[in-house]
Amino acid sequence: MSYRKELWEDTHMSQRAYPIQLFQNRPTNKKIGDCILYLHWHAHLELIIVKSGQALFYIDSQPIEARTGDVLLVPGGSLHVGYSQSEEKVEIDCIVFNPALFQEWMDDSIHVQLLSMYLEGKNHFPYLVSKEPYFSVELQEELKRVTDELLKKEAGYQLIVKAKLYAWLVQLARNHKQPSKAQEPYFANRDRFKQLIKWVKLHYAEKPTVKQAAAMVGLDPYYFCKQFKKLTGRTFIEYVNICRLTEAERMLKYSEETISEIASSIGCENAAYFTKLYKQYMGMTPSDARKGKHSS
């Protein structure tokens, strides 16, 4: 399923003692340019594994093209979003984990020297780690074992996942000879944009305007539009519509509300306009989405 609420900035960890979670993102009926990973951020680190297809991700406004087999490592606190870039179905696995997973090593001198800088956000690995010369088949396979353990959830899987992921990160740190300096945001008011995005997710049905959004981050509307497009690859109005229709998609799948009620709840009083807008962004009508049909 796509656009699960758990992938928003308040990412839920089901076990506090083992703060790591696997999210399998399998969006359906997506065309080139359609959103496959909702714009979000969280304090956790996130591994994005492209299982099939090709996608364009933005991590703190830096565009990154990735295809089948690629692995991205998103630092904690970074805004990130993804779009389909191929006719082939795009499937991604997201492993989200908090540095607290490795808390028993926090005071270990070797850990502090080699790895803590990455976990604490003082430095970061290249976003597209799979393209680094030190990224080996062994690292790819080990990550697959972590994913398999998270899927199967056999007895003691938490310990295996924790050990394997830690060893995987250590191997990255060992081979990454010249750590990147702590990344400066590509825009000076990233935190204001984070607050704006959080606000939009709560008030999308009110159809916030560019003027309102620009005022919230303290920017001129023209400059705001340029900054927002740089951050997300989309205009602000497109982003608001994606928020509205993503919620509509979730409600069509998981609620018993009528299509008219769903339209009204996302700020579309006219059901015909809702159908037109939904088809424009989602590639099918709300009725077909509810039935689980794909449009041709």
From TrEMBL:
Domain HTH araC/xylS-type span(s) in chain numbering: 194-292
Q: Which residues form the signal peptide?
A: none
Any Pfam family: HTH_18
Q: Which InterPro entries match?
A: AraC-bd, Homeodomain-like_sf, HTH-like, HTH_AraC, RmlC-like_jellyroll, Tscrpt_reg_AraC-type_HTH
Keywords in alphabetical order, please.
Answer: DNA-binding, Transcription, Transcription regulation
State the name under which the record lists this protein. AraC family transcriptional regulator
UniProt organism field: Paenibacillus septentrionalis
